[in-house]
Amino acid sequence: MRTFLAICLLVLCLPATADQRLFYQPLNRDENITPAQWQQLWRNTVAQGGKTLIVQWSAHGDSTFGGAHGWLAESLRQARAQGLELVLGLYMDPAYYQRLEELDSAGLSAYWNAQLGRSLNQYQQVRSSWNLEVAGWYLPMELDDVHFREAERRSALYSQLQAFNRRLDKPLHISAFSAGQLAPRVNAQWLDQLAGLGLKVWWQDGVGTGRLPAMVRQGYESALPCSVGIVREAFRQVSGEGQPFHAEPAEPTAGSGCHAEAVFDLRYRPWARGVLPRS
Length: 279
Known about the structure:
Layout: H1 2-13, E1 21-24, H2 35-47, E2 52-55, E3 59-60, H3 71-81, E4 85-89, E5 91-92, H4 96-102, H5 105-129, E6 136-144, H6 151-165, E7 172-177, H7 184-195, E8 200-204, H8 214-223, E9 229-233, E10 235-237, E11 247-249, E12 261-264
Parallel strand pairs: 1-2, 2-4, 3-5, 4-6, 6-7, 7-8, 8-9, 9-12
Antiparallel strand pairs: 10-11
């Protein structure tokens, strides 16, 4: 009886959301975190059920976070030492979303080709000099149904990702979000097609940004095939349109069903408070 009661109490004390897969978005200000703080952060992440850390990028514009011997690489080696599996992000252009707005279909295809080239260079640098074991790679350029609404653009993207994926030694992860420009069924078919390339495709639930009404978001989520994972946003955006992004921590929505799940972002989880500075 006592054993049964102890088990029940343990279950009640477990977090409502299992943070088995967590996104981490490196920022330059994280450089000030000490090695001891990183070590404790990774220990706490594992204690909370963390198994996989998806690092959004390892190079952001001109910032390489110190490269092979910089603070990011060193902190991730500590994460591995604590038992966390790593999916490492590649190169991100800070002007990515602005460029999407400016380019026509031909320009977008050429731009993506150039950015994939930069990510391939980053991939080669990490493999040759970072001394870091990774389980997969993450492409930071998020997809959406505004800039890839046309079938022609989605077809060009498919071919580019297919060719890029063949160059990698581990699975490629990529994420997408919905803005209501494709019907849920069409959006689901598109993401399933990308997953068919052997990619790990993630769909962001949009709860934190609140771009779409709850019922509309649910319609998109319900249409997703099991091959597409869901990213649960652990924040609520409080900044308005045109303002610098600012958000407050929030408990991610509890999921159910067949989808793999991840949480965005580690920075907003309770055990990271006081270590990772928030926006």
